[in-house]
């Protein structure tokens, strides 16, 4: 399979070269190989279906079903249900292998989990459901398709049968002469490509059901635990970040400020021609640079403006510092969770940074609003557009930061602009 070729049948059906590719033959092979499996299962289901139909027929005619029939139906049904989780396992193994004919995407294999697990697991009963679908629904669909194929074949061959003494019938219309049969033959030939697509649609539908039923089901309990674990980790990370910011702001920063001041005073007391003057000056400048760096680190952990001014004020401060004209519209009522404020601030900061660095914009607009239980942050610009998360880590990192608080990020950036970044953050406390 070439890199450009589709990986599964449903995608191959959208290609223009469907009829001249190998996919119709693969779909036909998938359908033909289904016939013996579905046939055996259909016969097995008739063991239940026949007495069930007899019982229903008796009820429709106001006759109570006989006790032997009801006992047979009950024992038969319970036996089939008891054996179905065991019988479905080998069928599922074969079906996973056959699915490769029309779907190259990997499907996890399911080893034998043990007898008890087959009755307890959701995966086992999904395979049982697929067993009944394969033996009950699939034969009906195949018979309908076979009738359509035979009708089309009858239309194509009708000119050769027109002179027959049995007077052939095409779509309930008796054919007396070859001239009457020719239009039907033409229509039958024109329907051959349609049948080619019908083969693909039937195989794609069956493959989709097989993939849904035979794939390992998602463990909802595990997903909930992962979500809770992520929430706990985000909360712990935010608390640790606040502690680090507090320690730096209240501990290291005042000491470094005091050290810088002492070095400055010492420079005043040391003559300029003293051998200690130059090393002291270098130490003083390094201390000042370190203090600026420490201030930036503290600001990066949690901006002081966010604490002092709130989210709207801190965003307006970002807008004032931008090199493009930024309009801020804030409609925030009520208190926001701290982690939501921090996330929203860094979203605006990163988005405005992208506007300045990459968009070539002359203006930008920031909107903050409470909508229901969410905080909605929108940053738009009039730049060139074409923002692509795959070309850099900025938008990807931003999406990860938003997802960490159960939010979502939406991006609209057609070539030529404008670009809109919309973030929705749940405000559950």
TrEMBL record:
Cited CDD domains: HATPase_UhpB-NarQ-NarX-like
Q: What keywords would UniProt list here?
A: ATP-binding, Kinase, Membrane, Nucleotide-binding, Phosphoprotein, Transferase, Transmembrane, Transmembrane helix, Two-component regulatory system
Which one Pfam family would you cite for this protein?
Sensor
Report whether Translocase shows up as a keyword of the record. no
InterPro entries annotated for this entry? HATPase_C_sf (IPR036890), HATPase_dom (IPR003594), Put_sensor_dom (IPR025828), Sensor_HK_TwoCompSys (IPR050482), Sig_transdc_His_kin_sub3_dim/P (IPR011712)
Q: Which sequence ranges are marked TM in the entry?
A: 28-54, 66-89, 128-151, 181-204
SUPFAM superfamilies annotated for this entry? Answer: ATPase domain of HSP90 chaperone/DNA topoisomerase II/histidine kinase (SSF55874)
Has the keyword Transferase been applied to this entry?
yes
Q: Which reaction does it catalyse?
A: ATP + protein L-histidine = ADP + protein N-phospho-L-histidine
- Report the superkingdom from the record: Bacteria
What's this protein's name? histidine kinase
Query: Which species is listed as the source?
Result: Micromonospora jinlongensis
